[in-house]
Every structure is written in structure tokens, then in C-alpha cells.
Amino acid sequence: MEHVIDLDAVGQVFAASDGGSVTALQDVQLHLRRNEFVSLIGPSGCGKSTILRLIAGLLRPTSGLIRIFDTPVTEPRDEIGMVFQKPTLLPWLTVLDNITFPMKHKYGRVTVQEHARARELLRMVGLTDFGHKRPGELSGGMQQRVAIARSLLHDPDILLMDEPFSALDALTRDEMSFELLRIWSERPKTVVFVTHSIQEALLLSDRIVVMSARPGKVDDVIDVPLPRPRDMATLADPLFTEMANAIRVQVFSRAPA
Ligand SMILES: Nc1ncnc2c1ncn2[C@@H]1O[C@H](COP(=O)(O)OP(=O)(O)OP(=O)(O)O)[C@@H](O)[C@H]1O
Predict the structure, then answer these.
(1) Within a domain: 100
(2) What's the domain range around 257?
(3) What was the pLDDT predicted at 61?
(4) Helix (H, G, I), strand (E, B) or coil at 98
(5) CB 206 within 8 A of CB 37
(6) Contact present, 235 and 203 (Cβ < 8 Å)
(7) Which atom of ligand 1 is nearest to the CA of 46?
(8) What are the b/e assignments for 96-126, b being 16+ CB within 10 Å?
């Protein structure tokens, strides 16, 4: 099976404000395949966001090697899209201009094709009629949809998502999960999804990476054999409940006292 992202013996040490150092990650091995959906879960501070920043090329590891399509990561790359916890939209731009903003910022212009694609993405995230609104006129869930559309404009092979739904209410969160699954099936890509929610990880993922508390290490990689397409019925599947309980026990047993 072809690997898209490889982390080999990756370690990350940060300088701490007290003059000491923080070992955020130690000897992390991860091999992610083309078009698979992988979630990272683990206790707060175990280095999940650090892994995303390393894959994105926003940070260089202090030890080990990260490769994307077999090429060492040395800087941010075009194959990657990123979605953060907050949508970080520019309030003075329209929704459509927010989606095309990264292209405009990088290349100084937006092509006719990119404009057309931005409109297509708006349709895909269910916001066809909102292209000319400002972000302030949209709900939190709608704003996060715009951020997802923005991350997909250059059709990245890899989508990195850092707790993208954590600021949303429970109902919107479920709705967004199903929406993301639909987008992912329409435009398959390798997704690395950070979450604190075991349910969310189970509903979305092909595999779940369970990390241990700092220094963050990969504690386990769990296959999720729940059938696709997944929907509301998945949440009631006895295997779903059984796996959620087992993972909860595993995560709590690894959390710091
Ligand atoms: N730039 C930095 N400088 C110093 N320490 C940092 C830096 N970035 C992260 N850390 C530390 O590295 C560790 C891992 O942080 P990270 O944000 O990756 O964890 P996380 O698992 O995503 O946490 P959470 O679940 O709370 O979001 C934490 O102890 C954090 O304080």
C-alpha cells in the first residue's frame, strides 16, 4: 500500500519559558496511506497539534524524518490543506473572497477557474446562496464550512484538521461530521484529524492513532472496521459502542494522574 505521509523516529523538543525544555514528541512512527482518514486522539498536551504542524512543514522536527510522497518535508507544501479549530476568516471579505484569498495572497490573482471552483466548493459545503455574505452574517458552523471550502480550493492530496468542530454545538458537530464524510467521499484525500472526541474519531476514521501523555508517543493504532458509508445508524451499531468504551479505557489509563 502506498504511503503518503511517513513519520520515522520523530522527536520534538521545545524550549520552555523557564529556560528548560519540553519534550513534546518522542520516537513517533506513523505511516499514512493514500486517501485514508486517520484521527489522532490522546490526552491534552500529548503533541497532536505538533504532529500536524510538523506534517504541514510549519515546524522542523528536532529528530527523525518526515516525508510526504517520499520527499522530506522542509517547508509548507501545496499538496496540503489545513483547517483549524477557529475558522479564521477575514471579516471584511465576502465568503467567496475568503475562499479564494490564499490564492490571491500567494499569486496576486485568482483565475476564472479558481473562481468557478470556489463556487463549486460552496455548493459542496451547502452554502450556494451565501457567497456574497460577510462571515459575520453566518453561524459558527457555516463559517467552519467556509474554512473547509477554503482549505480545498487547491484540491490538496492531504487535509490536516485540528479539532475543526470543537467550537460547535453537539448537533452542528454531528451534522458537520456527516458533511465531511460526504466531501471526503466526493473528493478522496488523506485526512489527518485531531479530536478529543472518541465518538467523532470512530465515526470518521479508517484508523485511530491513540497517543500517550507527554512525551507524546504512539500508543496504539486501531483499525475501525465499521462499514461505510457511515450515517446515524453507525452511532447505534453495537461495535461502535463497544469500540468507544474500549478506547475510552485505553485513553484514560494513559492520561497523567
Ligand atoms: N512553540 C512551543 N513552545 C514551547 N512549548 C510548546 C510549543 N508548542 C507546543 N508546546 C508544548 O508541547 C506539548 C504538546 O503541545 P500540542 O499543542 O502539540 O499538544 P496537543 O496534544 O495538541 O494538546 P491539546 O489536546 O491540549 O490541544 C505541550 O506541552 C505544549 O505546551
Answers:
(1) no
(2) 1-79+203-257
(3) 96
(4) helix
(5) yes
(6) yes
(7) 21
(8) bbbbbbebeeeeeebeeebeebbbebbebbb
Which protein residue has the closest C-alpha to ligand 1 atom 30? Answer: 45
Q: Residues with beta carbon inside 6 Å of ligand 1?
A: 14, 22, 24, 44-50, 214
Domain harbouring 234, CATH code: 3.40.50.300
What are the distances in angstroms from CA 150 to CA 78, 101, 120, 251? 13, 8, 11, 33
90-146 per-position pLDDT tens digit = 999 999 999 999 888 888 888 999 999 999 989 888 899 999 999 999 999 999 999
Ligand 1 atom 28: the closest Cα is on which residue? 45
The CA 24 to ligand 1 mean position distance, Å, reads 7
Q: What is the pLDDT of residues 172-208, one digit of tens each?
A: 888 889 989 988 998 899 999 999 999 999 999 999 9
In a domain, 176, yes or no: no
pLDDT per residue as tens digits for the range 76-104: 888 899 999 899 999 999 999 999 998 88
Domain count, the chain: 1
Atom of ligand 1 nearest to the CA of 211: 21
Question: If you measure from the C-alpha of residue 83 to the centroid of ligand 1, how many angstroms do you get, rounded to a whole number?
Answer: 17
246: CA distance to ligand 1 center in Å? 26
Closest ligand 1 atom, residue 194 Cα:
22
